[in-house]
Structures are given as C-alpha cells and as structure tokens.
Input
Amino acid sequence: LRSWPYESRLDDRHPVAISIEEDEMISDLQEHECYELLSSTTVGRIGFVRDGQVHILPMNYRTTDRGLLLRTSSSGVLRRLAGDDSAVSFEVDFHDDLGGTGWSVLMHGTLRIVSEEEPPETQTPPSPWAGPDRETPLRFTIDSITGRRVRRERH
Output
C-alpha cells in the first residue's frame, strides 16, 4: 500500500492517512475510513425523494457519534421528512485535481428532530449557511455508510 498524496485532517494534530493499492484505480473504503473522512469536512449533499422526484441539496453539518447534526427551517422540506421516517441519503466527497485522487462517502439513514432532553453536546448543529431562519436542529442517523477512493494514472 502507498499513501495518497492527499492527507485529510481532522485537525492539525490528527491527519487521516489514506492508502490505496498501486494497481487499483477505484477501491472501497473501510467503515472507519469513511467516518474519519466524514469528520474532515463540513459540507455535503442530502438526497431524498419528494413528489416522485429525487432532490439533492447542499448542507453543512457537524459530526456526532455515528450521525450528523443539521439545521433547517421549521417549515422546510427537511423538517417534514424528519417527522415521517422517510429514507434520506447524505454524500460527502473530495477531489484533488492536481494530485489525481479523490474520495466519496455515501450514507443512508433517517432524519429526526433533536430533542431538548438529549445531552447538550449532542444538540448543537452547525450555524447554517442558508441563513439564520434555520432554527430547527435535525439529527441524521446513519443506518449504512460506504465509500470509495479513486485515483487516475499520471501521464
């Protein structure tokens, strides 16, 4: 195995080294690698089906133990999805165009509203990029997580 030229960082003290077989262009990530990479960034895309169509929205998030914290408006579509146990997907990725490497992590799960009875450290979602009217905290519970890393040949 050799390390990618890219190292993700949880913070300055915790690099996430990623390895890939010399001859593999696409390979699967192990579950623990998926969680490490998920913690290395703060923006992804949430996907769901509504009115027979697939919708994919950019979202910023914060990681928790085996889940994500999000924030939405009290009248938004994500708030409604949190109330009806709908299946939801969340995807996070990275690519290094110069280095010819990348990765993608895909999660499937459900949304629910964060209750006030939960410990305070698990209740604080990120400040929403979409504006201050996103006051409803949501938890995305991960039922499954998979990932892939890719690299291209250098010419």
The helical segments are 31-38, 77-82. The first strand starts at residue 2 and ends at 3.
